[in-house]
Amino acid sequence: MKKLFLAGLVATLVMTALMYAAPMMGMPKMDIATMLGTMFLASPAPAFWLGMMIHLMMGVVVFPEIYHLAIQPESGSGTGRGILLGLILWAASNMMVMPMMGAVHPLVKSGMMPAPGFLMLKFGAMAPVGSLIGHGVYGALLGKLAGPKAAGLQAQPAHK
Length: 160
Prior knowledge:
Elements (H helix, E strand, L loop, with lengths): L1 H20 L10 H6 L6 H27 L8 H26 L1 H4 L16 H21 L14
């Protein structure tokens, strides 16, 4: 399991770096930490750090555990199955979570932040593309670095 969570950490850090570098690549700004944190806190700096902790917890613990329980292969490369997880996460976030933001996020309700809408299209046509790239990279790295389930198992000597 330690290898799985380490894979989740690396994958989350790379995805997070891509997310914050997105504007330099012609993509819209994608600040998931602030978006998550301002669900609970009004002050931007503490909200960012709370959101980052939530983001890291999901990427390092929750999603790797789902990957392990649902689709991690018994043997062979996990890259393809990791990409599958990334696509599932992208679809869920862009088709369900982001559209719901308009109804539940306090800054959206107050008019201080735009609602992302379906596929985050209110942030521009490149928003879903950037999100797809980020989730795909996350999944590919998680699957590749975690490897198959069998890789973490060691044969135990029989006791006499």
